[in-house]
Write a structure and sequence with these properties.
401 residues; alpha+beta; six-stranded mixed sheet; 11 helices; FAD-bd; PheA/TfdB_FAD_monoxygenase; oxidoreductase; FAD/NAD-bd_sf; FAD-dependent oxidoreductase
């Protein structure tokens, strides 16, 4: 779309953030005949180190929408079990084989492919507008009533007039900041440092998806390279940097199943990307005319890779509640409250589980005994397969004419 300085664009709903939550919600709304504008600050979806797990719950939604077959033609890896190596012993943490769904596996797919797929499917409907390289600037009010958003594309400013603004712009959401939402933070004991290593012919076969020889190392097979994640104590990255890159690479070499020489590729700190993990959620996800979903409403830990899938469930729940009010031309605060009411329990329950599994300490003693417990009681792997694969509440899209 060509933007002009001072131009005005109108939509039934403006979604800020073209991530999983934003694009899924946009697809469902335009499929119902509504006009939706999605604001995305980046020019494309090609960003490394984003969640790449598409869980059985999301695959089931794609099946219900008639999109599953096309989605699974894209390159992906299928994982029926999640495993971890703890104390030299491989433990199955989650088994998806008994789930009552079409796909009893996690599909590991680069998020940029998944987002491109959703955007292309949404673009098949006339009501869809995606504004990329466009930055959300501020909420617009007329007589103290929300009437839209102001955005910037390069040096040009545009106003999107709308009756509803959705903040789906992630854990650093500008929408939730602009709206003045308050939140609770539950901390997280660790961060993750991500980096790449190229694949070589003699590399060990570690299976598909995430794997690794030690609990603090994640390896993701990207076909032509390894995406590596190294878990560190919260806030220790600057301390590690002060100790120097050689010392940090020595620690990485101990955790990786490769020869230390492979780390010659990591020759500067700029090749290491810090993911600062946090767990938080808004007290209220909404104000009149504004709703936050996904990470904008509740930042999750990467444990279990559930963040993307909770965001998708939020989007489906939001669409189920909001399609009829949007079609009538009036979305009330009570409508928006219904979305949070629907999604509050699975959000809180998932975050509590993540805190428990993260090994957060209480009174100086570690509380994270979950992996060893699963190893001792195998039936738990099926329970966790259900909790990770489907979550605490699944959503089914309505209005699928």
């Amino acid at each position: 779309m060509t933007l002009k300085q001072g131009a005005t664009h109108s939509a039934d709903c403006c979604i800020v953030g073209a991530g999983p939550a934003g694009l899924m919600l946009a697809y469902l709304l335009v499929r119902a005949g509504l006009r939706v504008t999605v604001i995305e600050k980046h020019a494309d979806f090609l960003r490394d180190f984003r969640g790449d797990t598409i869980h059985p719950s999301t695959l089931e939604i794609m099946h219900q929408l008639g999109l599953l077959e096309a989605l699974l033609t894209l390159p992906h890896q299928r994982v029926e079990k999640l495993e971890a190596e703890i104390g030299g012993q491989k433990i199955t943490m989650a088994d998806f084989s008994r789930l009552p769904v079409t796909c009893r596996f996690i599909a590991f797919m680069p998020q940029w492919d998944f987002l491109t797929f959703l955007a292309e499917k949404a673009a098949a409907f006339p009501g869809f507008t995606l504004m990329q390289s466009t930055r959300f600037e501020q909420l617009v009010y007329d007589n103290n009533v929300l009437s839209g958003v102001e955005v910037k594309h390069g040096s040009d400013t545009l106003t999107v007039r709308t009756r509803l603004v959705i903040g789906a712009d992630g854990r650093h959401s500008r929408v939730r900041d602009a709206a003045g939402f308050t939140s609770q933070s539950f901390g997280a004991p660790r961060d993750v440092v991500w980096f790449r290593l190229s694949k070589q012919s003699g590399d060990p076969r570690l299976g598909v998806g995430h794997n690794g020889p030690k609990q603090n190392m994640i390896l993701i097979d990207r076909d032509d390279y390894w995406q590596c994640g190294y878990s560190i104590e919260k806030g220790q990255f600057e301390v590690l940097k002060a100790a120097g890159l050689p010392a940090f690479k020595a620690a990485l070499a101990e955790a990786l199943p490769f020869k230390p020489e492979r780390l010659e590729e990591v020759d500067e700190w700029d090749k290491l990307k810090l993911l600062s993990i946090r767990i938080d959620r808004l007290d209220a996800w909404m104000k009149p005319g504004i709703l936050c979903i996904g990470d904008a409403a509740h930042a999750m830990s990467p444990i279990g890779g559930v963040g993307v899938n909770l965001a998708i469930q939020d989007a489906v729940a939001a669409a189920n509640v909001l399609i009829r009010p949007l079609q009538r031309g009036e979305v009330t605060l009570r409508d928006l409250q219904r979305v949070q009411k629907r999604r509050q329990f699975p959000t809180v329950a998932t975050q509590l589980l993540q805190i428990k599994m993260s090994g957060r300490k209480r009174q100086g003693r570690p509380s994270g005994k979950m992996p060893k417990m699963i190893g001792r009681m195998p039936f738990l792997r099926h329970l966790f397969g259900r909790l990770i694969g489907l979550g605490f509440r699944t959503e089914r899209p309505k209005y699928l004419k």
